[in-house]
Write a structure and sequence with these properties.
mainly alpha; disordered N terminus
Length: 289
């Protein structure tokens, strides 16, 4: 039988001083990355104060290039400020992602908690319902729901929430089932703790960290999903500012006035990037605990 021997590398033979600084530096960077979510949320809340113009009102000559006449990102085909429209569109996309994550955590977490804590036929029933939702193609189901309800911001949130909660239900149920076999849970059962108290005090707190990490990692994907639905014309009706819809409506200007469809797309890129970085940083923080 071969025995693996780990030899120390050059990275392992560091001075004590460097070792002592490695973890705090990584922790600070992770907290800084995760704080980007808080900063971005505060910024989108303050969009009415930050945006230079009304996103629905023409304020300049149409098709002005970025930086001309004080318009940082230029103007669109009717003279509206693109920067203001991107800011308001980012506000809608960011809040949509946060709302869907919150709904998914509440609905999916509750179903997963009940299934994992109860076991038996109730667990089997709830998980088969969850599997039925997971077996459906999520993008097609979301498009079908929005098409049935009609375009609109609220309908988009409903459609994406319907296809998103099963992932959290499966995750929480697995964590609850794993925690149910722990000695402290068995001891609580022997002590006569009620099922409700057992679920809320001994099982749920152990499942929350992993659920939060999964939710933070989903922010970037949700922003892309909401932008894709609005790109297909299933978001708010024109002339409401939406990143995906603004890119789709102005694709005909791509070769001459490229900034009109590209700037909203860059807004989606920035939001998705911040969401992904924040999710990775939160995951690293949880691993270092």
């Amino acid at each position: 039988m071969a025995i693996a021997v780990a030899f120390p590398t050059l990275a392992d033979r560091r001075t004590p001083g460097r070792l002592s600084w490695a973890w705090p530096r990584a922790t600070v960077l992770n907290w800084a990355g995760f704080s980007m979510v808080v900063v971005l949320t505060l910024l989108v809340i303050a969009v009415p104060l930050i945006a230079p113009h009304d996103p629905l009102t023409p304020v300049g000559m149409p098709l002005q290039a970025p930086g001309k006449d004080g318009f940082l990102l230029g103007t669109d085909s009717v003279g509206r400020d693109i920067l203001s429209r991107v800011l308001y569109g980012a506000r809608s996309s960011w809040f949509a992602a946060l709302v869907v994550v919150a709904v998914g955590l509440v609905v999916g977490g509750l179903i997963g908690l009940i299934a994992g804590a109860s076991g038996g036929w109730l667990d089997a029933l709830l998980m088969r319902i969850t599997d039925a939702f997971l077996s459906l193609p999520a993008p097609v189901l979301a498009i079908a729901v929005v098409a049935a309800l009609g375009p609109g911001f609220a309908h988009t949130l409903i459609a994406v929430s319907i296809v998103w909660w099963p992932f959290y239900a499966r995750l929480v149920r697995g964590e609850i089932a794993r925690l149910a076999a722990r000695p402290h849970v068995e001891a609580a059962k022997l002590a006569g703790v009620s099922r409700f108290r057992l679920a809320t005090r001994h099982l749920l707190p152990g499942a929350v960290p992993n659920a939060l990490v999964a939710a933070s990692l989903d922010l970037g994907t949700l922003i892309l999903t909401v932008a894709a639905l609005s790109f297909l014309g299933l978001g708010q009706a024109a002339p409401a500012p939406e990143l995906g819809a603004d890119s789709a409506r102005n694709l005909s200007y791509f070769l001459q006035q490229w900034w009109i469809p590209v700037m909203p797309g860059l807004g989606v890129l920035v939001l998705a990037l911040v969401g992904n970085i924040a999710g990775d940083c939160l995951r690293n923080l949880m691993k270092n605990r």
